[in-house]
């Protein structure tokens, strides 16, 4: 790594502290350097709170050094008034002469205008340091703004003999394939995404809570398909403890706080139309957790960005088969006796 890459890598590390708390804003980290020494750093913590550049500048003890410093930021500084003033204006006001940017912001209200404003004010601006890594950092934000849909993560657990559940069971509760550590990791993932989606049959079979009770953080918006409105009002998914969106052809219930019924046509375009509707709700990312039919629908449509598949250390015998998924994994890990495989479209 060269010097610029070292400091930009630090910006990325800082930005990751905001994962799951900055929606609908992106993850951003910033570092201020004077004479090859970091004198300030910060990251964006939540929407409506100061941006990374503001926090980094505020952390500098000797503000006189800013006139000789370089500010690094993982994403193009904003140039518009949102919930906070433009970061470009602050950089210009503090007379920071050098600005190093990881990647351009795809958001239409920024999209290069921040860089242009900084250049027009006489700043030395360098763009594209660790660009790929900075875009990966905000894969959800970039997908939402460029593809006009949420970033989709498929997740399931299957047995060594390729089943995701037994054919029959006695109680409406999950049958665990993975160990407690893998399950806790899944709850951590849930705090990092804005939505969690399952099909009707999964809800009827398991009565899942779809929350993140085993990890500290925000609960995702629960999303499900319920074509014939068969899910009982007594099920956890309708307990109003977290936002829920139900797509149905038979809208019998009225919308209420934390429970919205969306009319939907269950045809070949259903997945695409669902993602358009979730985009309109400003949901930037969704983790799809089942069941097999729902997961297969996303796979068949090619509407996924990442897949996380656990292989537990058990055999289920004559069970419900896992989705057909013929891709090569990018990464593989072991969590105790469980194997975790990570797949990415790009």
TrEMBL record:
NADP(+) binds at residues 157, 176, 202, 291-297. Zn(2+) binds at residues 51, 78, 87. GO terms for molecular function: 5-amino-6-(5-phosphoribosylamino)uracil reductase activity; diaminohydroxyphosphoribosylaminopyrimidine deaminase activity; zinc ion binding. Gene3D superfamilies: Cytidine Deaminase, domain 2, Dihydrofolate Reductase, subunit A. Its EC number is 3.5.4.26, 1.1.1.193. Its cofactor is Zn(2+). Binds 1 zinc ion. One of its GO terms (biological process) is riboflavin biosynthetic process. Keywords: Hydrolase, Metal-binding, Multifunctional enzyme, NADP, Oxidoreductase, Riboflavin biosynthesis, Zinc. The active site is at residue 53. It catalyses: 2,5-diamino-6-hydroxy-4-(5-phosphoribosylamino)-pyrimidine + H2O + H(+) = 5-amino-6-(5-phospho-D-ribosylamino)uracil + NH4(+); 5-amino-6-(5-phospho-D-ribitylamino)uracil + NADP(+) = 5-amino-6-(5-phospho-D-ribosylamino)uracil + NADPH + H(+). It comes from the Bacteria. Pathway: Cofactor biosynthesis; riboflavin biosynthesis; 5-amino-6-(D-ribitylamino)uracil from GTP: step 2/4; Cofactor biosynthesis; riboflavin biosynthesis; 5-amino-6-(D-ribitylamino)uracil from GTP: step 3/4. Residues 2-126 form the CMP/dCMP-type deaminase domain. The keyword Hydrolase applies. Coiled coil: none annotated. Substrate binds at residues 190, 206, 210, 213, 289. In the C-terminal section; belongs to the HTP reductase family. Converts 2,5-diamino-6-(ribosylamino)-4(3h)-pyrimidinone 5'-phosphate into 5-amino-6-(ribosylamino)-2,4(1h,3h)-pyrimidinedione 5'-phosphate. PANTHER family: 2,5-DIAMINO-6-RIBOSYLAMINO-4(3H)-PYRIMIDINONE 5'-PHOSPHATE REDUCTASE, DIHYDROFOLATE REDUCTASE FAMILY PROTEIN (AFU_ORTHOLOGUE AFUA_8G06820). This is Riboflavin biosynthesis protein RibD. It comes from Flavobacterium indicum (strain DSM 17447 / CIP 109464 / GPTSA100-9).
